[in-house]
Amino acid sequence: MNDAGEVAGTIIGLVWLAIGWWMIAVGRRRGCADGDWVHVVGQIVDKDGASEGLFLRNPHIRYAAPDGSTHLVASRSRGDLWEPGQDVAILVDPTDADRAMLLTHAQRATPYVVIGWFIIVIAILTLVATAMLAFWVPATT
Fold first, then answer.
1. Is 45 helix (H, G, I), strand (E, B) or coil?
2. Distance from C-alpha of 64 to C-alpha of 54, rounded to nearest angstrom
3. How many CA atoms lie within 13 A of 50 on its CB side?
4. What's the angle, vertex CA 75, arms to CA 118 and CA 46, rounded to 5?
5. Which of 79, 100, 133, 140 matches a 20 to 30 Å C-alpha distance to 39?
6. Model pTM score
7. Which of 26, 33, 9 is closest to 123 using CA atoms?
8. pLDDT tens column, 42-69
9. Under 8 Å CB-to-CB from 41, ≥6 apart: which residues?
10. Which of 99, 103, 79, 100 minimizes the C-alpha distance to 89?
11. Burial letters for 59-96: b for 16+ Cβ neighbours within 10 Å, e otherwise?
12. What whole-number distance in Å separates Cα of residue 90 and Cα of residue 93?
């Protein structure tokens, strides 16, 4: 009997399961934004955002919501791809104009869902293998 292997396999399987569900949740949230939210054009305000010196940035975007109000929010997209003053496509939550994301951020929803399901399959296989270790007793000669 390999109790340590069974415990380790169970923990690893459960961690993979949690990561897979998290990735699917992120993908679905981004996908819903792409379907329900309003498309507007905004502008990158800065490259710094809240990175505090890190290479990857979280630039701020300024946009006019469908109701005409102007908003300034963090883009929630990491990367040093944009220049201040650059026009960008933005999705705005019609129920809360302060919630917005770059369109490219929303378009990356599908890979999150696909990879999340792949990780969940690996987690289930790990848990099944661990259960087989726990209950399978080799035949004695």
1. coil
2. 29
3. 6
4. 140
5. 79
6. 0.54
7. 9
8. 888 876 655 455 555 677 889 988 788 8
9. 63, 87, 88, 89, 90
10. 103
11. bbbebbbeeeeebebebebeeeebeeeeebebbbbeee
12. 10
